[in-house]
Amino acid sequence: MVPEAEGPSAVRQLSPGMAFFTDFVVTGTVRGADATSTPAEVTGLLGDAFVESLTGPGQLLRCYDLVEVAWEQEGDGRRGLYVTVQAHRLDVPLSVDALAEDLERVGFPLVEVAPDGVGCRRFVRADSRVAVLADEENGQVLAITAPAWFAPGPRGEPSPWSRESGRDRVRHLVGLGAAEREAWAGRRAPGEAEEAARWWWFLWVACRQLLPDEGERRFGHDRSAWEVLALWLLGSCEAAGVLDRTDAVCEIARYGLLEPDTAVRACLDAIPVSRADVATRESTPYARENLVAVNASRAAKRLTLAAGELLPRVRDRALRAEVAAWLELRTRLM
């Protein structure tokens, strides 16, 4: 959202203050609206002065001047995809150096990751999951998006190994027993920590690209063999530090690696704070001294949403009730 303006060229004339952009990077929200908000919630927070369009099968894009919010069709409703501030539309360009300096000053620095290879620099604020894309030549910010579509560290770097070599390795691994897998990894895993993290992430990406759908057999193995391999690789990614517990459990839920009740229980067990103590937007300012509480609230939100995706298939009534109670808090979490 940006200051009000009139006329067809209003978007080009709008130049919000730096606080607008730093607030979005720090919080991942625009006036409380984020990528998990429903269309009705966004209207309540940002108003009804928008233009909507269908951008693909079941996809809806809503534009508020510089701010765009996108959803995809899910059943009878819509699932949020992203919120983007299209900074390239600004009449007065926004310098990425100025944005980074302001964020450093308030204690929420950006991390630059590998360039995209087509003329753009990429930055990320990992805890708010916000990405900043800037022109490599002139340093002007092009777009700021939440959630980020890239990450710092190995997840944001190009792989030194080919996609086909990754597929060959996981096809071999899926046919091995637990002891054989460990022995294989002991012989081949890089010794240096950063390189090992990159290697484990590379194998997990290759595995998830080959995961069969439920009931499908692939390369002579049923899905259960692939699930065992996927869980092992995710555990190895977590041990190598390329994924934290929230990331790993969300991947487990997303790819259906455990039966629904077990996956939901894993999501709930991974929430690092109780419902009684979780930080909310009303109770806790986005400040450096509150970062631990803010990030615990963010983890709770991500894990709750992951569990909520599985809720229709959960049999345990107590689990269903606990997830429902967390979902009632969703719009108040950080």
Characterize the structure shown.
The structure is a single chain. The protein is an alpha+beta fold. Helices cover 43% and strands 15% of the residues. It has helices at residues 10-13, 18-27, 39-46, 96-105, 163-173, 178-188, 193-210, 223-240, 245-254, 260-270, 291-310, 317-328, and strands at 51-56, 59-64, 67-74, 77-85, 111-113, 120-125, 130-135, 141-146. A hairpin with a 2-residue loop joins strand 1 (51-56) and strand 2 (59-64). Helix 5 (163-173) packs across helix 7 (193-210), helix 9 packs parallel to helix 11 (291-310) and helix 11 crosses helix 12. The model is unreliable at 1-13 (pLDDT under 50).
The percent of residues in helical segments reads 40-55%
* Alpha plus pi helix count: 12
- Please trace the helix and strand order, writing H or E for each element: HHHEEEEHEEEEHHHHHHHH
Assign the structural class, choosing from mainly alpha, mainly beta, alpha/beta, alpha+beta, or little secondary structure. alpha+beta
